[in-house]
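Hi R.,

Here's the chain you asked about this morning:
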Amino acid sequence: MSTQSKIINQIMQFAVYGIVFLFPLFFLPVTRDFLVYSKYYFLTFAMLGMLFLAFGKFVLLRKFVWIHNSATQSMLLIVLSYILSVALMSPNKLQAVFNPSFGLVTICLFAIFYFYASHAFTKARFAPVLILGVSGALVSILTLIIMVNPFQSVTLPVYWSFLSSTVFNPIGTSVQFLAYIVFVLVGLGLYLNRMHQKRHSKDEYNRAVMTVMGVVGLFTLLAGLFHTFVLVQQIMTQGAQILLAPFSMSWFAAVEVLKSPMTALFGVGVDNFGSIFSQVRTAEYNLSPLWQVNSFASSRSALLHVFTELGALGVVGYTLLISLFIKKIKEVKVETAGMFIVSLVILALLPPSLVTYFLFFVSIALMTADLQQKTTQDEYIIDLSGLLPIYIGVVVLTLLVLGGTSFFLGRQFMSEYYFKLSLDSVADNSLQKLYENQVKAIQLNETNEEFRRQFAQTNLIVANNIAAKDPAQITDADRQTIAQAIQSSIEQAKAAVALNPGKVTNWETLAAVYRQIVNVAENAPVWAVSAYQQAIVLDPRNPVLRLDLGGIFYLFQNYDEAQRMFEQAVSLKPDWANANYNLAWTYYQKGLYGSAVDQMQVVVGLIDPAKQPEDYKSAQKNLDEFKVKFQEELAKLAEQQGQQPEVVAPANSELNLPTPPQPQLEEKIELPQNASPEAAVRR
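And here is the predicted structure, written out as C-alpha cells:
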C-alpha cells in the first residue's frame, strides 16, 4: 500500500471519529429547525468528503477494495425499500428524497457512515465509547449552562434568541436529548465497569482514564436529571406539551396500510405520514390535549413509521438487519451490547429523527467492529489498472454522481438559508426582505411545500398592505398590484396542493387564502367552500375545518349550512367552547332562541372564569341577552295563546364569531378561472 493511500486511510479514520464527536454538538442557526437541518447538512457534507477521499484513493490505486460486511445485503434492501417507496408511492418525490428526518438521502448517508465507521472502529486504538462520552460531557456542560439562563438580561440577536430558552440543548427536542443521555450513560457505565473488573485496571493509565470518564459520566447524568426536572416543571406549571403522535394513532396508521396491496408492500410513501394520520384520526383524539395538532409528520415509533411509510419491504429490511446483530449480541463487548439494546428501545418508543438513527447506526457499527476484531476480514479487490477504458469510465461516472449530488445538496442548503433569512426579517419588520428571500428560497427548491404555503401568506400580506389604504387613494396601479399579489398567493397555495394533493395542510392553506380575499375578489367565497370541502374529505374528523367552513356560510348569512357545519364541529369536539359559541349565535340568527339559550349555557359551563375571565363575561352577557329575547318570544306566544308566561330571572352577570376579513374593496377584483381550487388538482 502506498504512502498516499495510508495517509488517506488515516484521514478517513479520524474523520469518522470527528463525525461521532461533533454530530451531537453541531448546530448553526442559519436554517429553519436548525438543530435538525444543521446536523443533516453536517452529515451530508462530511459523507461527501469521505466519498471524495475514497475516490481519491481509487484514482491513486486504480482498484476497489471492499471489506466483507455481513450487513451489506440487509442495508441494500433497506435502501431499496426507500427508493421504491419514493418512486411508487410518495406524491412529492423530491421532498421525500431530501427529507432530513426520514428521507432517501438521510438513510443513504447513514448507510455510508455505517460502513466507514465499522471499519474505523475495528482498527481503533482506544474505545470509541470514550469519544461518545467526551462529546456527551460537552453537550451536558453546555446544557447546564443554558439552564441557569445566563442571557436573561441580554438582548440577543434574532439568530441567537434560542439561547434564552432554559430547555435548549444542542441535540434537539428534550425527548431526544434524554434519549441521547441514556445511550451515552449506559455505554460509558458498562465500559467503566468492564475496565474496573480487569486486572490491569489498577495501572496508572487506566486509573486516569476511568477517573476522567467518571467525571464525564457525572456531568452527563447531572444534565439529564436537571433537564428532566426543568421539563417536568414546565409541563406542570405552564401546561407545556411534548408534541409526539399518540401510540394509538400511530398504530392505526400502520394498520391502515394493510388495506391495499400496494401500500402493504411499499407503504404510503416516504414523507407522507401526515396524509394517513389525517385519515385515521379518531373522535377520541379530539378530546386529547393534542387535538389542535391537525397532523404529525412522523409516527410515535420509528419502527411503526417504517411500516407505515415503507411497507412490508422496509420492515423486512430492518428486521433482517436487527436480527443479524441480536443473534450475535453475546459475542460483543458488554457496553456495545448495552448501547445496541438502548438504540432498539429508542427506535421502538421515539419518532424517527437524525438523532434516533445516529444512535442506532453508531451502535451497529460498534457491534460490527467487535465481531470483526475476532475474525479475519475478507477483502474483495477489483483491479482496473490494466483496463484503462473502464477505469476512465468509472472515474468520469463517479465524478458526475458526486458532483451532481453535491450541486443539488448545495442548492437545498442555500434554499434553507434564504428561507431562514426570510423568517428573521419578520423581526425586523422588513416586508421587502421577507418577500425577496422567500423568492430565492423557492427558486432554489421549487418542490418544498412549506416554502409555497409561507409565500402564499406573504403575498397576501403585500395585497392587504396596499388594500388597507384609504379607498380614495387606491389607484389603478394599486389595484393591479393587489390583483397580482392575490393571484400569486393563490398560485403558491395551489402549487403546494399540486405537490401533494393528499395532504390536508395544503388544502387548508388554499382555503384560507380564498377566505381572506372574499371581500376583494369575485368567486372567492365559492372557491373557499370548495377547498374546505376537499380538506374535510381528507381529514373527516377535524372540527377546526368544520368551524372554518361554517364561518364562511355564517358571513354570507347562509345560516342553515352554517348550523350544519357548527353542529358537526360540536359533535366532533363537544368540549370546544368556540364551536358551541358559534352554534349558539347561529341558532340566535335563525330565531331559534330556546336552542340558542341552551347552547350558550353549554358555552358558559365550558369556560373556566379563573383562566378566561373575559371570555366568561362575554358568554354570560350573551346568555343573558339570549334569555331576554327568548322570554320576549315566549311572551308573544303566550299572548297569542292567552296564557301567562313563566318568568326566568336573568343570570348574574373572548370567543370568536366569524368576521369579514379586512380590508375590503368597493369594486371587487375579478380573478381568472384558473385560480379556482379545481385547477389546483388539474395542475
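One quick note: Residues 388-427 form the longest helix (40 residues).

Cheers,
M.
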